[in-house]
Amino acid sequence: MKNRKLQFNLQFLNSFIVFMILFALSPLPLSAKASSSSSNLFDYVKENGQSSFEEKGINELDSAIFAMLSYISFEGTAAEDSRNGVTFRELSNRFFSSEFRYSMRNENWDIWQSCIRMLETAARCKRYEKIMVKGYVNLLNEEEPSQFSALVFTLAPTLHFIAFRGTDTSIAGWRENFLMTCESQTSSQKLALEYLNEWTSYLPGTIHVGGHSKGANLAIYAAAHARPDIQKRIASVWNFEGPGFSRNPDMLERIKDIDGKIKTYIPETSLVGVVMRSFDRYTAVKSDNHLFLQHDLFSWHVNGNSFESVDDLSRTSRMFDSTMNATIANLSDDQFRILINVLFDSMEDSGIHTVQDIGDNMGRFSATLAKACVFSDKETRKTLLYVGKCLVKNFNASVKEEKKRK
Q1: With the CA atoms of 176, 177, 178 and 180 taken in that order, what torsion angle do they form, in degrees rounded to the nearest 10?
Q2: Which of 26, 102, 124, 148 is buried most deeply by CB count within 10 Å?
Q3: Exposed e or buried b for every residue in 14-47, given b needs 16+ CB within 10 A?
Q4: In this structure, how many other beta carbons lie within 10 angstroms of the beta carbon of residue 173?
Q5: Cα dist. 380→38, 132, 150, 385 in Å?
Q6: What is the pLDDT of residue 32?
Q7: Enclosing H/E stretch for 307
Q8: pLDDT at site 150
């Protein structure tokens, strides 16, 4: 009888987790991108490409472009030169003449294709063509596993942007986004701090730092741990939907020293930027895409020299925010790791390798997750049951809160 009750509870947990995912997916399918006549980052570059940074200073759109360009692998292009670097136009020419770019087609081809299209488009514009690109580094440790990549854009002799690479649409990358919030310092964060400290000794004048997804998390971490003299030189820390630090009390204290410099942008249906978010101030942005795919900055709407903002997050994002963060707050780091690993192991075992795969593999994922819940070890089952109770409680609370808004 006891085993039957346990099995029923675990199957209920599985059903509820799948329901939560389907609830989040409910607005529209993941596979299609909505057609829209709204402007995007490419339109901004085309319309402002003839204005230099002296004529029109760096803004949130330029910062988003630099953050996304950090996803491109620039091995062998001379961007690895620690002092001199190469001009943006020459970097583009060398990249497109390199055989290496053909080996980069992977499961994240759609987003990567947008990044290289932006490289080609911006390189033909007065605003970007003479930017010096330098300091490119790409380090991979498969044992941990961890990945770190960054580069420097020198816009003028005394104006620089340090961009940290984030994760892509791969499930492995999303797993890292969640798990890194459990650590007081990850290897990537340590490398980001070392990179910032090193490069500020080479770069005179004003520094901007930023990134997308994990890259934003690295930028904030490095800026918050930098020496006071370096922090004074940092004009802005650009956070494009990076996961927060709410499970790290020491980090929350350090953020106070740079809080006024952090500029946070999340899409209207944010599912990454609201996870353990550390900031009450943010700009919610209109997007052509839906759910997880709103994580792609190229889908964000542009209005003039800024992103097109919306008054509030979507209902899906608000409920995901309140349900997940209230649940996560009640979990120990070990419990949180168990939950994330069970979910993402089940996704990968179900053939889900990118967020685009979720919609077509939901049935297989449900069955795989059910087996994982029932046949896991005692400690894992105990943790999953506790998580299930918290999720149900907090989801019901979020439903009540949404009813009050009507």
Answers
A1: 70
A2: 148
A3: bebbbebbeebbeeeebeebeeeeebbbbebbee
A4: 17
A5: 47, 51, 37, 9
A6: 39
A7: strand 306-307
A8: 95
What is residue 163's three-state secondary structure?
strand
Q: Which two tokens stand for residue 246?
A: 């709410």
Report the chain's terminal Cα–Cα distance, integer Å.
44
Class of residue 54 by CB neighbours under 10 A (exposed 0-12, middle 13-18, buried 19+): exposed
Sort strands 302-303 and 306-307 into parallel, antiparallel or unpaired: antiparallel
Q: How many other CB atoms are found less than 10 A from the CB of residue 143?
A: 5
For 70, 138, 218, 256, the CA distances from 192, given in Å and listed in that order, are 14, 12, 6, 19
Q: Count other C-beta atoms under 10 Å from residue 171's C-beta.
A: 21
64 in Cβ contact with 41 (< 8 Å): yes
- Within 151-264, residue ranges assigned H as helices are 171-179, 187-200, 214-225, 228-233, 249-255
C-alpha span between 62 and 266 (Å, rounded): 16
Q: Are 223 and 261 in contact (CB under 8 A)?
A: yes
Angle (CA) 153 154 157, round 5°:
175
The pLDDT of residue 133 is 96
- The residue count of the chain comes to 406
Helix axes 214-225, 171-179, angle to 10 degrees: 30
Q: What b/e string do you get for 332-361 counting C-beta neighbours within 10 Å, with b at 16 or more?
A: eeebbbbbbebbbebbbebebbbbbbbbee
Three-state SS for 159? strand
Return the half-sphere exposure (C-beta side, CA atoms, 13 A cut-off) of residue 90.
13
b/e 186-216 (16+ beta carbons within 10 angstroms → b): bbbbbbbbebbeebbeebeebbbbbbbbbbb
pTM, two decimal places: 0.83
User: What's phi and psi for 291, nearest 5 deg?
Assistant: 50, -125
Token digits of residue 29: 């399918």
Report which secondary-structure segment, H or E, holds 208.
strand 206-212
Mean pLDDT by 10 residues, the chain (406 residues): 50 51 40 61 96 95 97 82 86 82 52 88 96 91 71 96 84 72 80 95 96 93 95 97 78 87 91 69 89 86 95 84 83 87 88 77 82 83 87 88 78
